[in-house]
Amino acid sequence: MTTRTISNQIAFRYRTSDSATGVTRATTKRLAEHLGVDETQAIHIALHDLAARLLPQYEADDGALSAVQVRQIKKRAPQGSKRSVRSSLFDKETI
């Protein structure tokens, strides 16, 4: 019986033409040359960029605050009754 181990490598096959779902080796070589890295590093950079754009970069929170939590925040935060504008982006004459 053969023992099978989990590998940190995967099979990677280049496409015969560039498309939305894959690239040719020539494109990977051009990208690597442009970045000043080898092909493997270019693939890692591309995957990292994709992961940063698509995957959440933080843990999900518990959702919206409950009414009780909002009341607790309002109770603890200073709630001045007088409000004034110290400065404005608009001229007073045009308002």
Properties at a glance:
95 residues; mainly alpha; 39% helix
Helix-strand layout with pairing:
Elements: H1 25-35, H2 39-54, H3 67-76
Helix pairs in contact: 1-2
Walk me through what this model shows.
With 95 residues, the chain is an all-alpha fold. It has a domain at 9-56. Helices cover 39% and strands 0% of the residues. The chain has 3 helices and no strands. The protein is elongated, with a radius of gyration of 28 Å. The termini are far apart. The relative contact order is 0.06.
Quick description:
The chain is mostly helical and 95 residues long. The protein is 39% helix and 0% strand.
* Helix content, binned percent: 25-40%
* CA-CA gap between termini: 84 Å
How big is the Rg? 28 Å
Contiguous uncertain segments of 5+ residues: none
| Helix-strand topology string | HHH
Overall strand count? 0
Structural class: mainly alpha
What is the general shape?
Answer: elongated
Q: Tell me what portion of residues adopts beta-strand conformation.
A: under 5%
Q: Major sheet, described briefly?
A: none
Mean pLDDT: 87
